[in-house]
Design goal:
Layout: E1 3-8, E2 12-21, E3 33-38, H1 43-51, E4 56-61, E5 67-68, E6 73-80, E7 87-91, E8 94-98, H2 103-112, H3 128-133, E9 137-138, E10 141-142, E11 147-154, E12 159-163, E13 169-170, E14 173-174, E15 179-187, H4 196-205, E16 214-218, H5 228-234, E17 241-242, E18 245-247, E19 254-257, H6 263-281, E20 290-291, E21 296-298
Parallel strand pairs: 3-6, 4-6, 5-20
Antiparallel strand pairs: 1-2, 2-3, 4-21, 7-8, 8-15, 9-10, 11-12, 11-15, 13-14, 16-19, 17-18, 18-19
The structure holds uridine-diphosphate-2(N-acetylglucosaminyl) butyric acid (EPU).
């Protein structure tokens, strides 16, 4: 890769890298090439990067565990949040945590500190920023329930803070948009200790998932009153494939990259599964895996 150091407003300097292949940054191992890529080490550096831009779409990638990045060249700047990993404990039950902090590491920390709350998140991959933006969870719970406030950088390169109540969230969704999350303040229930039985139950549920192969978690959300996995299974989707993208034999709501599947293979397979379920049941499955869209565009 061609690497260049660009001066930013004379105050900051950040490393931009051109033509960065994004597929290794995703758990599916698919997707194209970022025209320009940067991985800032702190929020101030990110502000400087955004202020230095003109007419540029800006994308964000966290752990890459729940997105489908299109093939080919992605015009614009892709920001990785992975270096935003600072964690600061405010008291025994609250912390401010960088958006790039790995969710599994946070879960491990809470377990070691005997703080309860995130037992349901055992086994969920990705970064905290990604987890908050999609309210990652299991069993009717999601990480957003413990979020006090979110700091983010907007399209002007300014820091903004969104307090609890200023954003909404629900089943696998959160409406924070148009700004890049840099850190999250979280509070866990005072006095609630880590419940190992509950954590083990959640871990056991994951045994039905094809975790040893490349995937992006559940492909579709569960429609109300139904299980997407069961619907897909009942409609005979297991084993369906496009190129090297295949529907898992273990859990029908997982698509696996069994070789060098392209994103268009995966995309086509998702569509085929959704059509099949619709034809046979009349139910329209809604995607859980997110499309790769700009967070905002700098004018
Ligand atoms: N089922 C089938 N065939 C399949 C898959 C599932 O018949 O191929 C049946 C199961 O036997 C079960 C029902 O469908 O009776 C539900 O399946 P499962 O228990 O595996 O849970 P799920 O609803 O498919 C949800 C979350 C998962 C989370 C698990 C465990 C969604 C869309 N999925 O899966 O989240 O890990 O519970 O807590 O909400 C994700 O978000 O990426 C994800 C994987």
């Amino acid at each position: 890769y061609e690497e260049c150091v660009m001066p930013l407003n004379n105050t900051y300097s950040a490393k931009f890298t051109e033509n960065v292949s994004l597929s290794p940054l995703t758990t599916l191992g698919a997707g194209g090439v970022a025209e320009v890529f940067a991985s800032p080490s702190n929020a101030e550096e990110l502000c400087g990067i955004i202020r230095s831009l003109k007419e540029c779409p800006v994308y964000v990638i966290g752990g890459g565990s729940n997105i489908l990045i299109p093939d080919g060249r992605i015009p614009g700047l892709v920001i990785s949040s992975r270096k935003l990993t600072k964690i600061k404990w405010l008291n025994d039950y609250s912390a401010e945590i960088g958006a790039g902090y790995p969710l599994p590491l946070l879960v491990k920390n809470l377990r070691e500190r005997n703080i309860g709350g995130l037992e349901f998140a055992v086994g969920i991959p990705g970064t905290l920023g990604g987890a908050v933006s999609g309210n990652a969870g299991a069993g009717g719970k999601g990480v957003c329930m413990f979020v006090d406030s979110v700091k983010a950088v907007d399209s002007s390169g300014d820091m903004i803070t969104l307090k609890r109540g200023e954003f909404e969230y629900g089943y696998r969704k959160c409406d924070i948009s148009g700004a890049i999350i840099t850190s999250v303040a979280m509070s866990f229930p005072v006095g609630a200790s880590w419940n190992e039985d509950e954590a083990s139950n959640f871990a056991a549920k994951r045994k039905s998932q094809p975790l040893d192969s490349r995937n992006a978690g559940c492909t579709f959300k569960n429609p109300e009153g139904h299980s997407a996995g069961k619907l897909l299974d009942d409609c005979g989707c297991k084993g369906m494939f496009c190129g090297e993208a295949v529907v898992s034999d273990k859990h029908a709501n997982f698509i696996i990259n069994r070789g060098s599947a392209s994103s268009s293979d995966i995309e086509e397979l998702i569509e085929l599964c959704a059509e099949r379920v619709f034809e046979r049941t009349g139910i329209r499955l809604e995607r859980e895996i997110k499309p790769f869209m700009p967070c905002f565009s700098v004018k």
